[in-house]
Design a protein that fits this description.
single chain; 305 residues; mainly alpha; five-stranded parallel beta sheet; 12 helices; 5 strands
């Protein structure tokens, strides 16, 4: 089993003791209420597409689904699951990989088949983050899977990251409103795992370097292990993809889309119900605080009379 090496200082990724507090008592759902089922893999993992987000991951997902692979895990599976326990489980895997454990600094933690199959047991293929953040673990856990390194040129990738992840992480919803609704809170923790864990403190500052390191490292690992892999970009279309996978080229145009604007609109639509619930919780908190303040002032005034 692949042994993890924790290489980030605790100042870059918070230890368990310094993690953000849980949602405040005003939340209608303080903890995930839909527990994850035990791992139950009934079909093999066939494809690991290990490119970073904004590297044609959604187009690749749709293409693999057209080819008949079921299910293809994508980053949007996290918020669309309707279960904050999914976000929480990915966050815990991030802590397992990136945290430096203060009490046992010399002991490494292992991400197991069980850990991954709890989240991916229903899948035949994966793409996008959070999976790309655990590329080496996936390679070790699913040694028979075919490997795709989907990518794009670093300049356009960096601009796309700034217009998606960068913009969302500056929003009121991400920074403050997430503390008033459970699913938004745990989704934020997944993004923080990307930011402070994989991107070593800042996606915007370190993105280009991490992008280059990600692909160089995986190429090195795959070549050292003698594993065949496909270097692929969206512009390559069906032919190299189908040739590598041993599939017939479909008689449909290769799927494309998911621009930064489309991604933002899709994300907002997915989070709409949770955001409305968070605003209700925030309103309730403000009203309660106001009532307490008025009561305190009234009591103080009465005591002085």
């Amino acid at each position: 089993m692949y042994r993890l090496t924790t290489y980030l200082e605790s100042t870059l990724y918070p230890t368990k003791a310094s993690l953000p507090p849980p949602p405040p008592p005003t939340s209608t759902k303080l903890t995930p209420t839909q527990p994850l089922p035990p791992p139950n893999r009934t079909k093999p993992m066939k494809i690991l597409a290990l490119g970073l987000s904004r590297s044609g991951t959604d187009s690749l997902r749709r293409a693999l689904e057209i080819l008949g692979y079921d299910h293809v895990y994508h980053g949007f599976d996290v918020p669309t699951s309707g279960n904050p326990a999914i976000s929480r489980a990915w966050t815990e895997l991030g802590r397992k990989k990136f945290d430096r454990r203060e009490e046992e600094e010399e002991e490494e933690e292992t991400i197991t088949l069980r850990d991954l199959d709890v989240l991916l047991g229903h899948c035949e293929a994966v793409t996008d983050q959070p999976c790309a953040c655990f590329a080496e673990e996936l390679l070790s856990t699913y040694p028979q899977a075919k490997i795709i390194l989907n990518s794009r040129d670093v300049e356009s990738w960096e601009k796309s990251i700034e217009n998606t992840f960068g913009k969302y992480m500056k929003t009121w919803e991400f920074r403050y409103l997430s503390y008033f609704e459970t699913s938004l809170y745990w989704l934020k923790q997944v993004f923080m795992m990307y930011e402070k864990g994989y991107y070593q403190g800042s996606i915007l500052k370190n993105g280009r370097r991490v992008h280059e390191e990600h692909y160089a490292r995986l190429r090195g690992v795959l070549k050292a292990e003698g594993r065949e892999f496909l270097e692929w970009r969206v512009v390559d279309g069906w032919e190299p993809l189908c040739g590598f996978l041993g599939e017939r080229v479909p008689g449909v145009e290769f799927p494309n889309g998911n621009t930064p604007a489309q991604s933002a609109e899709r994300g907002a639509r997915v989070r709409k119900v949770a955001t409305a619930r968070a605003y209700r919780n925030l309103t309730a908190a403000v009203l309660c605080a106001g009532a307490v303040a008025i009561g305190g002032i009234a009591l103080l005034f009465r005591c002085r009379v």
